[in-house]
Write a structure and sequence with these properties.
The chain contains two helices and 17 strands. The protein is mainly β. The termini are far apart. It has one domain: Methylamine Dehydrogenase, Chain H, CATH 2.130.10.
Length: 207
């Protein structure tokens, strides 16, 4: 592992590595699972058994409390319990398990959608494209009291990939690109997303 272009630390896993993901935790996948490590000591936080292993992992920003595991034809929404993990890692004399800590993640929901590309525009909203040209966004529901829901932003006439989101442009714009390098943008106002998240979590005052 490199930090600021300088080798920071080296470690070896006990399984064949088929992919690596950044984010709140370091993720390394094998054929039938993905294992997450903390960035400081590279201790196992949690092994998540999914087959096939995720083709991509998306962490929410800036809090990093939600995570999407995107598989071939479905994706999972998990909640990361940072306080539990921090307490476990700080506990002296704790033996490291290859499965990590069971309480590290809470399963929230499975969605039968294929994610071609995606980006979190807030801690509660994940925007993604599908191979059929749909541009959707997931509202997490803001916690245990709310139910996550996938809403449609638009149907494109071709397959697009998300470049990024700019919340300062005209209330919020999503930028996408196709294979011919044509760039398009869609309006997606963060204020509206926050309102929808508050409604789903039954936070009337927040709405």
């Amino acid at each position: 592992m490199f930090k600021n272009f300088v080798e920071h630390r080296a470690f070896k896993t006990n399984f064949a590595n088929e992919g690596i993901f950044g984010g709140r935790l370091l993720g390394i996948k094998s054929k039938d699972f993905v294992t997450f490590y903390d960035w400081d000591q590279f201790r196992v936080v949690r092994r998540v058994d999914v087959s096939p292993a995720p083709k991509n992992v998306y962490w929410s920003e800036p809090a990093g409390t939600n995570i999407v595991l995107a598989l071939e034809d479905t994706f999972y929404l998990l909640q990361y319990n940072a306080d539990v993990v921090d307490a476990a890692l700080a506990r002296p004399g704790t033996d490291e398990s290859e499965d990590g800590y069971e309480e590290a993640f809470t399963f929230v929901e499975e969605f039968h959608e294929t994610v071609s590309s995606g980006v979190w525009i807030s801690n509660d909203c994940f925007v993604f494209t599908t191979p059929k040209g749909a541009i959707n966004y997931l509202i997490t529901g803001g916690g245990a009291s709310g139910q996550p829901r996938v809403l449609k932003l638009s149907n494109a006439d071709k397959k697009y990939f998300i470049m990024g989101y700019d919340g300062k442009q005209q209330g919020g714009r999503l930028y996408l690109i196709d294979k011919s390098l044509n760039i398009v943008s869609y309006s997606l106002q963060l204020a509206l997303v926050n309102f929808q998240a508050a409604i789903l979590s039954e936070d009337i005052h927040g709405a």
